[in-house]
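Researcher: Let's do a round of design. I'm pasting the structure tokens now; please hold your answer until I've finished.
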């Protein structure tokens, strides 16, 4: 799977699935002493969210700030320009390209 740098860390993109079948994007460290260590999960699973197949909810706040732009810049997702609020946070609805 594709690799790229985020915050000076080389990461590999793993596409996984949540228990309800929706796609998840996991970023895993590549190289050095952290090779294979999970970097972050870029997505959130909100089962009742009205998203289409092939769409994901990207967490781009807190420790994940900047993840959306990195995923867009590296051709992993496109931002649909639509957001969804859940609790006290807002997720970007994105189209998965890989």
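Researcher: That's everything. Go ahead.
Model: Designed sequence:
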């Amino acid at each position: 799977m594709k690799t790229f740098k985020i915050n000076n860390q080389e990461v590999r993109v793993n596409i996984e699935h949540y228990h309800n079948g929706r796609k998840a994007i996991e970023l895993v460290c590549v190289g050095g002493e952290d090779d294979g260590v999970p970097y972050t999960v870029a997505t959130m699973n909100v089962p009742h969210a009205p998203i289409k197949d092939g769409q994901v909810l990207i967490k781009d706040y807190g420790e994940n700030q900047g993840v959306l732009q990195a995923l867009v810049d590296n051709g992993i997702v496109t931002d649909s320009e639509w957001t969804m609020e859940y609790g006290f946070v807002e997720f970007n609805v994105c189209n998965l390209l890989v």
